[in-house]
Amino acid sequence: MAMNDPIADALSKILNAEKGGKTEVEVTPVSNTLLHIFDILKDHNYLGDYELQDTTRGRLLKLNLLGRINKCGAIKPRFPVTVKEFDKFEQRFLPAVGFGVIIITTSDGIMTLSDARKKNIGGKLLAFCY
Fold first, then answer.
1. Averaged pLDDT, groups of 10, the chain, 130 residues long
2. Roughly what angle, to the nearest 10 degrees, separates helices 6-19 and 32-43?
3. What are the C-alpha distances in Å from 116 to residues 21, 58, 70?
């Protein structure tokens, strides 16, 4: 199976499992970027704990789902954003102010849009979840 966007594949797998009422989902392949995204979603109580396993075919991630995700997905294309444009993208990807998170990659690492606003740095949009 050809993988074009592992972030989009993982997030759609999680969303489908959530809609199906599952409590656990397996994600593969696993990159460090994906782990940072899952850490942020875990910190914001969208995901439960996860377990990383090394298999003969690479790393496998077993994620516990909490049933709190209404929608999540990768943002494509990966728009470059400045601090001035944050509000525009929050309105585009989130249903209400202060509801949900947008994950962005910056020169300081992967963080939420609100953390990037506090540090006053722009970056590229990766994903959203609410």
1. 85 97 96 97 97 93 97 96 96 94 98 97 98
2. 40
3. 33, 32, 24
Task: Quote the DSSP letter at residue 38.
Answer: H
Instruction: Tell me the whole-structure pTM to 2 decimals.
Output: 0.94
Contact present, 116 and 122 (Cβ < 8 Å): yes
Task: Specify the length of the chain in residues.
Answer: 130
Long-range contacts of 108-111 (CB under 8 A, 24+ apart): 109/36, 110/33, 110/36, 110/37, 110/40, 111/40
Tokens coding 69: 């995700």
Residue 78's closest CA among 61, 102, 52? 102
Rounded CA separation 91/121 (Å): 19
Q: In the CATH scheme, what is the code of domain 6-65?
A: 3.30.1370.30
| Fold of domain 72-129 | Dna Ligase; domain 1 (3.30.1490)
- Domain positions in the chain: 6-65, 72-129
